[in-house]
Amino acid sequence: MSDLFKKITSHCKEYGFIFQSSEIYDGLSATYDYGPNGVELKNNIKDYWWHSMVKMHQNITGIDAAIFMHPKTWKASGHVDAFNDPLIDNKDSKKRYRADVLIEEYMEKIENKINKEITKAKKRFDDFDEKMFRETNNRVVENQKKIDAIAARLAKAMSDGDMADLKAQIEEYEIPCPVSGSRDWTEVRQFNLMFNTQLGNIAGEEGKLYLRPETAQGIFVNFLNVQKTTRQKIPFGIAQIGKAFRNEIIARQFIFRMREFEQMEMQFFVKPGEEMKWYEYWKETRLNWHLALGTSKEKYRYHDHDNLAHYANAAVDIQFEFPFGFRELEGIHSRTDFDLKSHQELSSKKLQYFDPQENANYTPYVVETSIGLDRMFLAMISNAYTEETMTDDQGKTSERIVLKLHPALSPVKCAILPLLKNKEELTTAAMDVFNKLKSHFLCQYDEKDAIGRRYRRQDAIGTPFCVTIDFDTLENGTVTLRERDSLEQKRMPIDALAQEISSQIALHNVLQ
Ligand code: ATP
């Protein structure tokens, strides 16, 4: 873990964002609990997603399907037969890895070499042209060729399910175990990622139930229920937020890869032949959704899939630069009519749409957008985490850690702080302000410690506004409003607070 990433994970614990699940029993790996500030941030992210999907689109409605589904669902979707990861064990460390991830990390090492060459060259030349450098520098060209060849071979082995070739690649590239450093590997085996459990009193295969590994299938099986009850015409979408479960082989990197996590998915049903148009539309729309929060454009990039899943005819990831590098945050997939057709076949129920314009029935194609809520949480926290040195009027410097979250996402919107704790007139006036504001947005009353320390506590959880109640408040009904990032303080009447703060934290500001 990088130093920054370690700091972020411990900050999350110290300030009540995320706790290790079952910590008193030494924790359960890759499962986490969200604390008081964490649940607020998570709910605000959900709100932003839900509003932008459901409220902003007349043709998208939501559902909330059950986690348990009929076991045939997972046969039809291909998860029983094909939802596998290739696993490999190191015989010396006894550690288990995903074979494809070991190869990807090897490619990343070569990419780092290229990046180093570029950084060096950038320093040397004022009018540095990165594109030209990439095309002409021998070492860079050679390394890029290597990466492209490995990527193509990996994609082929994955789509052919060729476990022997994955093993051969690990041996050829002389990839060592990150823990023991040894190259004594087992064979590569397929490992199904679905958790299963047993239904009531039905024993054996008959009663075998799965915990859903994605929320999408709850939408596919309800496709006609929703279409008929909402009278939607194609194109239309169904949105859902819910838990998903995957028995991940390696579950490192905090909440980036968990065994129980939440997804926010939207399946958009379109006329066959129009899927690429909608795929491009959602690719752009989803990136804009991220950028509307004010996060720098450089933090995001598209990454086309080399290895398409069995149901897809196009797929792209929106990657985010986490503290450990660019990784998938969201996927946009053109899923063809694979899912609806498979469910239709296995259930023998017609899952078609009657198009009044065409006067014909057809199975719609689907473009989906799928984002991990927890990954979005991690992206937002890592992007917001800032260590700052501040200088006061007398030139004295001090440090602060501040979470520069977009105000619409911040867990607490406003802290109400009486200047002194032991002056009853101040604490009473501050409680009055708290009571006035609490129905508008989440407020926190805090009277403990010096005012500077209280500001620091609010900065650390990303509270955009602090209201201080002092002796002038008792005289003229005004307070100081302090803004988190600019540290600007202005005086304003108590009666103006609700409107001023509401206007700055409103989701409306980011919805487009
Ligand atoms: P990865 O390649 O990282 O395993 P994936 O391609 O399997 O991800 P999808 O099946 O496309 O992921 O799932 C959609 C989204 O769900 C991902 O973009 C990611 O944000 C989230 N997600 C998937 N697996 C996990 C997990 N184990 N923990 C947290 N979020 C996850």
Please name the defining characteristics of this protein.
single chain, alpha+beta, 17 helices
Any overview of this molecule?
The protein is α+β, with helices and mostly antiparallel strands and 512 residues long. It has 17 helices and 23 strands. The chain has helices spanning 3-14, 36-55, 72-76, 79-82, 99-124, 130-136, 138-160, 163-172, 216-220, 223-230, 275-291, 338-347, 373-384, 424-437, 451-461, 471-476, 494-505; strands at residues 18-20, 32-34, 60-62, 84-89, 96-98, 189-192, 196-198, 208-210, 236-245, 260-270, 300-304, 314-322, 325-336, 353-355, 360-362, 365-372, 385-391, 397-403, 414-418, 443-445, 465-469, 478-483, 489-493. It has a 7-stranded mixed sheet, with helices on both faces. The structure holds adenosine-5'-triphosphate. Adenosine-5'-triphosphate (ATP) binds next to strand 10, strand 13, strand 16 and helix 13.
In short:
The chain has 512 residues and is of the alpha+beta class.
Number of strands: 23
Largest sheet: 7 strands, mixed
Strand content: 15-25%
Rough outline = globular
Give the distinct bound molecules. Answer: adenosine-5'-triphosphate
Low-confidence spans: pLDDT under 50, at least 5 residues?
none
Instruction: Work out the helix count.
Output: 17
Structural class: alpha+beta
Q: Kindly report the average pLDDT value.
A: 94
Overall radius of gyration: 26 Å
Quaternary:
single chain
Distance between the termini: 37 Å
Q: Percent range for helical residues?
A: 25-40%
Strand order of the largest sheet: 3-9-10-16-13-12-11
